[in-house]
Amino acid sequence: MAKLAGFNFQQWLEEHKDKLKPPVNNQLIWEDADLMVTVVGGPNSRSDYHVDPVEEFFYQFKGNSFVRIMDEDGPYDVHLKEGDIFLLPAMVPHSPQRPEAGSLCLVVEPKRPEGEVDAFEWYCENCNHKVHRVEVILKSIVKDLPPLFKAFADDEEKRTCKNCGELHSGK
């Protein structure tokens, strides 16, 4: 077994800065660990809500962001200023929003238990009714998510609200 050692996080950020902006926006720090420790950069804008089977810990260490939460009363925002931390319980529909270019957030979550699925949901932009849900056994955020988002954006039937008839923008 190799000797354990830390590393310079600031240097790591500099070496991976190209991955912390669009279109990728995130980078996993360790590949073979029981925790998924990811750095996520801004800007981003998304309309999906992630329903994660595990807790997520957020540390907004540069710039500001917010996590949009969907509950029975509709969406609300949890603002994260630089230096803030936030623990999101499992199974809460959430949509991280990072409007600031150069903002950085450390997100820590356990790997999924065997067979546990992540879900992605979209809600009507007019009445907040759930428009579409897709479940996936998530292996790679970078590889697995773009096809799901594209399939939703390309399908007007999936984007049409059954409650009020509004067509979701698909963004």
Report what the structure shows.
The chain has helices at residues 9-15, 141-153, 156-159; strands at residues 26-28, 35-41, 49-51, 56-62, 65-71, 74-80, 85-88, 94-97, 104-110, 118-123, 130-136. The strands form 3 sheets. The chain has a 5-stranded antiparallel sheet, with no helix packed on it. Strands 3-10-11 form a 3-stranded antiparallel sheet, covered by helices on one side. Strands 6-5-8 form a 3-stranded antiparallel sheet, with no helix packed on it. A hairpin with a 2-residue loop joins strand 5 and strand 6. It has 171 residues and is mainly β. The longest helix is centred in the last third of the chain and has 13 residues, at 141-153. The chain is 14% helix and 36% strand.
Concise overview:
This protein is mostly beta strands.
Overall mean pLDDT: 93
Largest sheet: 5 strands, antiparallel
Radius of gyration: 17 Å
* Share of helix, binned: 10-25%
Secondary-structure content class = mainly beta
Please report which band the strand proportion falls in: under 5%, 5-15%, 15-25%, 25-35%, 35-45% or over 45%.
Answer: 35-45%
Shape verdict: globular
Order of helices and strands: HEEEEEEEEEEEHH
Please report the total strand number as a whole number: 11
- Name the quaternary structure: single chain
Uncertain runs are none
Helix count from the secondary structure assignment? 3
Strand arrangement within the widest β-sheet reads 1-2-9-4-7
In whole angstroms, how far apart are the ends? 47 Å
InterPro entries: 3hydroanth_dOase, RmlC-like_jellyroll, RmlC_Cupin_sf
Keywords: Dioxygenase, Iron, Metal-binding, Oxidoreductase, Pyridine nucleotide biosynthesis
Organism: Dasania phycosphaerae
Protein name: 3-hydroxyanthranilate 3,4-dioxygenase
